């Protein structure tokens, strides 16, 4: 039995769920239509370029969680799942997950998107274990702050190592599937790195190092 690790956005999904959640909030009129859209698009471009200031991004991204009640957030997320996430789930991605499940592998999603957004998505995909950015909660309400180390770039490695230590497991014979050059720190740690519909930087790296490259798009 091995560990099969999956990135989420642009890997098992055809979209970036963090950016899509921002667009959804704009559609609901829940955030400033100009400033928030500009920030949402700018942070997405920075992520793709590998220059994202994660803490600056989270200051903006987590504020709507603090500004709204848990009940309102839950209602919105249900709509978000139906309108944005369900159409973006890649059938071949689900087949890949099923392949590893049939092998008896331990399934894990690790993502730089926060748990509020991704927890229900992981559940929909039938994956119990999730490492995500953790929005801080106090007395049942989000504070707008992050708890612990964000699972982004080297932070994914740090969070994964802590997760493995808690379970007394290792990365021996582990797989990691990702589309992004931002995940190179973790891809370099596993025995089976797989580039999934990779960005240009990751594709060049995968080709140079002889890593497997696959597509989960139709």
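Q: What amino acid sequence fits the structure above?
A:
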């Amino acid at each position: 039995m091995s560990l099969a690790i999956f990135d989420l956005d642009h890997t098992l999904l055809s979209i970036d769920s963090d950016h899509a959640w921002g667009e959804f909030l704009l559609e609901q009129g829940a955030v400033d239509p100009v400033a928030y859209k500009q920030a949402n698009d700018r942070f997405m471009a920075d992520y793709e370029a590998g220059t994202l200031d994660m803490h600056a991004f989270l200051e903006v991204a987590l504020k709507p969680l603090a500004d709204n009640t848990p009940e309102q957030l839950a209602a919105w997320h249900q709509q978000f799942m139906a309108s944005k996430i369900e159409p973006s789930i890649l059938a071949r991605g689900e087949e890949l997950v099923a392949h590893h499940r049939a092998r008896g592998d331990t399934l894990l999603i690790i993502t730089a998107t926060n748990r509020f957004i991704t927890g229900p998505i992981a559940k929909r995909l039938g994956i119990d274990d999730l490492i995500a950015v953790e929005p801080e909660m106090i007395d049942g309400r989000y504070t707008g702050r992050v708890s612990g180390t964000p699972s982004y770039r080297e932070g994914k490695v740090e969070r994964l190592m802590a997760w493995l230590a808690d379970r007394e497991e290792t990365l021996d014979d582990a797989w990691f599937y990702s589309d992004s050059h931002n995940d190179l720190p973790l891809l370099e740690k596993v025995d089976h790195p797989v580039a999934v519909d990779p960005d240009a930087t990751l594709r060049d790296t995968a080709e140079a190092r002889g890593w497997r490259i696959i597509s989960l798009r139709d």
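Q: And what stands out in the fold?
A: Residues 99 and 113 are 25 Å apart (CA to CA).
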